[in-house]
Amino acid sequence: MALISSDRLRFPCEPWKLVENIHVPGDEGTLETLFALGNGHLGIRGSHSTAGDSELPGTFINGFHEIWDIKHAENAYGFARTGQRIVYVPDANNFTISIDGEALSLAESTVVDYHRSVDFSTGIYEERIVWACRSGATVTTVERRAVGFDSRGCLGLELSLTADRDVSADITSGVVNRQDQPVEDHSVHDPRRSGRHAGRVLLPLHLQGADGSLRLAWETSESRQRVAMAVDHWISAEGQPFETLVAEDESSVRYVLAIHDGDTFRLEKSVSYVVAGSSDAEDRGESLAADAEANLVPFPEILDQSKAHYEEYWTTADISIGGQPEMQQAVRWGLFQLAQATARAGVAGIPAKGVSGSGYEGHYFWDQEVYLLPYLTYTNPCGARKVLESRHAMLPDARVRAKELSVDGALFPWRTINGLEASAYYAAGTAQFHIAAAIAFAANRYQWASGDDTFSAELGADLLIETARMWASLGFFGKDGMFHIHGVTGPDEYTAVVNDNLYTNVMARFNLRAAAALEHEGIAETERMVWRQAAERMSLPYDPHLEVFSQDNDFMTLEPWDWNTPKSKYPLLLNFHPLVIYRHQVLKQADTVLAMFLQWQDFTAEEKQRAFDFYDPITTGDSTLSACVQGIMAAEVGYSDVALQHFTEALFIDLDNSHGNTIDGVHIASTGGIWSSLVCGFAGMRDQGEVLRFDPRLPGEWEGLSFRLKVQGRLLAVDLAQGSIALKLVEGPDYSGEPLPVKVRDYGVTVGAGTVTVPLDDVPVPPPSIFPSVFPTAGLPIIR
Hints:
About 25% of the residues lie in helices and about 25% in strands. Helix 12 links the parallel strand 25 and strand 26. The radius of gyration is 27 Å and the shape is globular. By secondary structure, the chain is of the alpha+beta class. The protein contains 17 helices and 34 strands.
């Protein structure tokens, strides 16, 4: 059921904000995700600060995690051994407010007016509530919060309170260790959701507080990571706190005071987090708490940092859609989420939920290379390089893992935080060897797009070479003279452990070619020759009967799925045993279609259309990664209506909670796919060829589409209208004056500071493919 798009009275359409004007119980968890704040390092969910009014509140730090030994019911060599899970760090977003003895809460008190918003242009969350108190007073509370950017471990919270008569106020500001609170383990019913630890996770190291200041530190019981926080309070009234209490799971600062008619009381809460590995056992966290204290930033400065960051961010990252206000709001919310997941991550990966929730345990997947790094590479190339640096730092563990799986080179983990494989279900985890090619592909794209001269020598060559070595040893030259890769799972997790998965082979071919083209002293000529031969002889399954590339060697022989299966049985992974799904012709997400998008040069227009026509109807979309890719390829093929339909589905996955698990955090890879849908789908951008290319497919309902790309040290402005595309380089401190060669369809242009406009003909809609019967016996009469 739709959420944001279904009630525009409650959620009005504003171009630069997400707004909620009416509080309705029941959606708290989803809205906590939608109103979350983050900077890639630190994230805080958009929860109401009163305990009874929140569903799944929490604060997260990227990479701060706990580990445990995975217990396999039936063990085998090479299974993942160590589980990893992001930890809820102690949460500062807690206030209780009592007016004349009445504790204010949305659940129990009378609300006269309610309004909250998150402003994409400033990164500031604001919540304004007018309460009719039982004492007869009308009280207005306003809460604001923001995360730091220059100070990436800092959080600022502000509470202001105004009354229409003299009132007695009792206000408590708390810090709560939510990780060790008793909470249901939702992963028992849904593997997409985060599990819980059996024992205590955060062990107190240092607990100190006085006069409204808190200095606290904990250590995780197994991973031995440490987190410390410093909290300071400032109030607009004179006087000291009534009390300051400190404990391992809940600390608080309490104010009891009179607020006079018309006066506004303000409470500012500055919070600083610092994380570190285990240190000297004699250091009980004092030094880390001192570091947190040294990094404290006053609330107004945190606001200023957030405003300054987004003022700069939007000059490059904004994407404008003409004449589509609801889509425009949703696109900007998505771009805002991308910034929140990546901006200050440092040399770390990007969790599948960013820092907005605990879904998927806070792990890094292939998502970041295929769905997020295109956005980062063309809007924040420094951030893209840091993600690739984080992968490069995993190489030692990846080499060890390769040996465990009896292959050469490096084998990166399917899901991880600390560099070790954390996927306990190997069929849909470790078997997805294609993550190696995703990393190589992202490295190659970054090198091509950034113009970073030092990248290959420092990072890129290692990533390409070690992954190429893995492919060369994983695959083999068969009796047919072709190179085969067996026993793998592609992106479509509804078809597992197969031979010659087309996506895997296509991407491995790219990987081998790119590595073979390197001039590097570490590559022996015999090795280079093997890579080239493996690439040129790569087996790509093809069904001559259907004239379609087959997803794998056996996919076309599988029994078709029963499409009369009721909608209540989707997603299939929650309602059918994996073996039931594996033996049917049904897809969780685009697989072959994705290969044809990423390796666009390798397939003809007819091959792409026939593949799309065949696979699109049998793709369930149970994966949030699917709709954006299907939309991109529908646009390329010429199916504008289908492209817009898939794009719209992808655009509102979280805003409408269409997959039912937005409570656990933003589907950040899907949000990255929205960027690609606009830039690569409707604008038709393709890269890693001789020059940057555009083949636009603007929907007929749209007035225009505008965005900017950072390309080889230049900022390219793209303005798409019905019947034309305009290109120019934006003059600025980084602009050298050197023009940029670009192709628009088959027309080459040179783009400089002046606008170059290229007229565009309409793209005809091709007739859909007609397929012969999949099974030759389908038309035979039934023998009774």
